[in-house]
Design goal:
single chain; 483 residues; alpha+beta; Outer membrane efflux proteins (OEP); 2 domains; four-stranded antiparallel beta sheet; two-stranded parallel sheet; 10 helices; 10 strands; elongated
């Protein structure tokens, strides 16, 4: 590691010297377009539509959970009915037949509360509670997936930007050599072949510069699309600290996997879905138990045909019969009350017709086309499916962690080897350049040394960002911040 650090410092000093010797200096990034990885993640969280859909799905599960708890409350319903009948109908006031137009009204309220139903309500509450918790974890899972994609795109853009800068340095060095050889060629101090070899190298560097610039634009575009923001080619990304590339990763695959089981939202969501499915089976089994309910109601009505007799007076009236007294027919009289039939007011009927009822009911499921049994079987299938998803999730996680750890180890070893290669080719190129400038080395040997260094520098950039991605991926599995 000490040698690797020394090599990296040498390379950095070499690149810095070439960069400062160039015609331009990198401009300072505008704060409005200067983004860190954390800012990119925040933008993606705020704008990603899949994440918003997951949040809406979780909100729907919250409504289901709230409804499951409120199912313990009594159910109260009221009704109001107004209408009229024409022709032969039953008077709702007297229950006698009438043949006239009747206006009527019925009012009532009824309610009931379940006292016992085999714990179905309680099991359903637990089922919906666990489903809601799983939904929240699935939101985090969406964030996790988005975080990995954003990190990958961010590091790709950074590595491409570093490659672009490296190729600019290469092109600048080739340009300086072409300028030097052009002067020497005019003086006849070098053969034409050497000048044209360097011109060809400069053209190759410029082509690589154009291609890499296009790749950088494509990487920035992909990052903007993941953040769901308009494409801005002026975006500048915050580089990673240099110590990211110098340290070996601590931990092992088995320990990382055990941590991931307790940290990763995908595993938590799968486990919660399994627990929710278990409660679902219990909830459907509870439907086979009798249901005991307490019910009650209020009722009153009105009829336009309702009448009441109002006493007026008592008078003597003839019965139509007679008796003979001494041979004379004498009519028989009787005392008869006189009444006036008056319409009963709406308010009086509403009060007088008031009635209540209260009852206990026991509903015993005997046979309902075996729907209950089939629902239980379906719930068991859903439970097995959830268990399979959970098991698959854990197996895939273990495989992903093992693969990621293997890739990290291989990448780190490659990175250290490339550092040594850069160190060697840097010294080789330094010697070749000095000899070429003195005229004791031909252009082919010089270009070979230069291309070896250029390739090793590019390989170093690719290797170091590949290593950073692998280490941050392992951090992600352990629930650590990746920014």
């Amino acid at each position: 590691m000490k040698k690797s650090l020394t090599s990296l410092l040498c390379v950095s000093a070499f690149c810095l010297a070439l960069l400062l010797a160039g015609p331009g200096v990198m401009a300072q990034a505008d704060s409005s377009t200067h983004l860190t990885l954390k800012q990119c993640l925040d933008l993606a969280y705020a704008n990603n539509l899949d994440l918003k859909q997951a949040e809406l799905d979780a909100a729907g599960l919250g409504v289901d959970y709230r409804q499951a708890k409120q199912n313990r409350l009594p159910q109260v319903n009221g009704f109001i009915e107004h209408g009229n009948n024409q022709g032969r109908s039953i008077d709702p006031f007297t229950n006698s037949y009438l043949n006239q137009k009747i206006e009527y009204a019925n009012y009532g309220a009824s309610g009931g509360v379940v006292l016992f139903n085999g714990m179905a309500i309680q099991n359903n509450i637990q089922q919906q509670k666990l489903a809601l918790a799983a939904g929240k974890q699935e939101i985090q899972q969406q964030k996790d997936n988005l975080s990995i994609n954003i990190m990958n795109a961010y590091l790709l853009a950074l590595s491409t930007a570093d490659l672009l800068e490296q190729i600019r340095i290469q092109a600048h060095l080739s340009s300086k050599q072409v300028e030097r050889l052009a002067i020497l060629h005019q003086e006849g101090a070098v053969p034409p072949g050497q000048l044209y070899d360097l011109k060809g190298q400069l053209a190759s560097d410029e082509i690589n510069l154009v291609n890499t610039k296009n790749q950088l634009d494509a990487a920035i575009l992909a990052l903007c699309q993941l953040m769901n923001i308009p494409y801005n080619p002026a975006i500048e990304l915050e580089p990673l600290p240099s110590e990211e590339f110098l340290k070996a990763y601590e931990g092992n695959a088995a320990g990382i996997y055990q941590t991931a089981l307790n940290q990763l939202a995908a595993v938590k969501a799968a486990s919660l879905r399994t627990e929710s499915a278990e409660k679902g089976v219990k909830a459907w089994r509870s439907q086979l138990w009798p249901t005991l309910s307490l019910n009650g109601g209020l009722f009153t009505n009105y009829s336009s045909a309702a009448r009441t007799a109002q006493f007026l007076r008592t008078i003597e009236t003839s019965t139509g019969d007679y008796v003979k007294i001494n041979g004379t027919e004498t009519p028989v009289l009787t005392m008869r009350d006189q009444f006036d039939m008056q319409k009963i007011t709406y308010a009086d009927q509403f009060k007088n017709n008031y009635s209540t009822n209260i009852n206990l009911s026991l509903r015993i499921p005997i046979i309902n086309s075996l729907q209950g049994r089939n629902r239980i079987e379906r719930a068991k299938i859903q439970l097995k499916s959830a268990e399979l998803v959970e098991k698959t999730t854990k197996i895939r996680l273990q495989q992903q962690v093992e693969q990621a750890y293997l890739n990290m180890t291989a990448t780190y070893n490659r990175y250290k080897t490339v550092l040594q290669q850069v160190d060697a080719f840097t010294e080789s190129f330094r010697t070749a350049e000095a000899r070429f400038n003195e005229g004791v080395l031909n252009s082919v040997e010089y270009l070979t040394a230069k291309n070896n260094l250029d390739r090793s520098m590019i390989n170093l950039i690719v290797a170091k960002y590949d290593y950073v991605f692998r280490t941050r991926l392992l951090d992600f599995y352990q629930g650590k911040a990746i920014w």
